[in-house]
Specification:
Number of domains of chain A: 1
Number of strands of chain B: 1
Oligomer: heterodimer
Shape of chain B: globular
Number of helices of chain A: 6
Number of strands of chain A: 1
Largest interface: A-B, 125 and 118 residues
Chain lengths: 154, 143
């Protein structure tokens, strides 16, 4: 491995760690807290709005800077989404995701972090999520269209 | 609307949110990538040469986060009320939905809104709305 590749791998690992810590500190890895936010009609816990607010306040500056760059600060390519279409896939997919999120209180990041903590239900959730993602890959059928590029890399 | 003051934690929520924003900022500026978990993990199921290592490094960082947190701050006590069947169904829906919708809470909710992407705003409103409705149905209409 050359130096720049090593730097990238270290950066990715550290960013994953910081992101995981952020999910734990914020309360996102507590499904009870997530569902408390989604329960508008019951006793409402507004905390998660503060999580989003804090994250976006920092993100706004970073992405404004990122848009002006042609390479990353480690010298690699910028892989920013190119798709702008607001279509049925986007809306229906997001609705299905939201239904699943509301059922158990886990979204992908917190579920993976909780699986790392050894939570049995989080591990089962992640396995089911991977199965769902695999079903998507099968339904898409790699042969029917050219491989997708970075547009969907959210 | 009744506020749940006993569980309301604005400061840790804000601090955690800033960490999430910081991670997203570092990822796009250092690695040139969108920090979107469903895309990062989903891409592992569509393996291509040279496109695996960065995803694994990131996921490994996430997996060791609870251990690091435990060392720094002690144990956490998440409340997981859903039964096993619901957990499996929810996982399947989240897996399929995030891939069709090209993103989840991190990619659309944090990065997309930070990029001022209309597409991500629509996605975020859709999954938040569906989450609100699902919890309403489960806890109040059917529960």
């Amino acid at each position: 491995m050359n130096t720049s590749l090593v730097k990238s791998r270290i950066s990715e690992f550290v960013v994953g760690l910081v992101f995981g810590l952020g999910l734990i500190v914020s309360g996102m890895t507590d499904p009870g807290k997530v569902l408390g936010f989604l329960d508008l009609a019951g006793l409402w816990d507004p905390s998660l709005a503060f999580v989003m607010g804090g994250a976006i306040a920092v993100g706004l500056f970073a992405f404004a800077l990122a848009k002006k760059r042609t390479t990353s600060f480690l010298g690699g390519a910028m892989h920013l989404p190119t798709s702008r279409s607001i279509d049925r896939r986007l809306v229906v997919g997001s609705l299905v995701f939201g239904a699943g999120w509301g059922l158990a209180g886990f979204c992908p990041g917190p579920a993976i972090v909780s699986a790392g903590a050894g939570q049995p239900k989080a591990i089962v959730f992640v396995l089911a999520m991977l199965a769902g993602m695999w079903l998507f890959e099968m339904a898409e059928g790699r042969m029917r269209r050219p491989p997708k590029h970075q547009a969907g890399a959210h | 609307m009744l506020i749940d003051w006993t569980h309301f934690t604005p400061w840790t929520a804000l601090a955690g949110g800033v960490l999430l924003g910081l991670a997203s900022a570092l990822f796009v500026l250092l690695n040139g990538r969108i920090l979107g978990i469903s895309g990062i993990v989903g891409g592992l199921l569509r393996p291509r040469a040279g496109d695996i290592g960065w995803r694994l490094a990131f996921v490994l960082g996430m997996l060791v986060a609870p251990g690091a947190y435990w060392l720094l701050a002690g144990p956490t006590a998440p409340r997981i009320d859903a039964g096993w069947g619901v957990v499996v169904l929810a996982g399947l829906l989240v897996g399929v939905g995030t891939r069709y919708g090209s993103g989840c809470t991190s990619g659309h909710g944090v990065c997309g809104l930070s990029r001022l992407s209309p597409r991500s705003l629509v996605a975020t409103l859709a999954f938040m709305g569906a989450g609100f409705v699902t919890v309403f149905l489960a806890r109040h209409a059917l529960g």
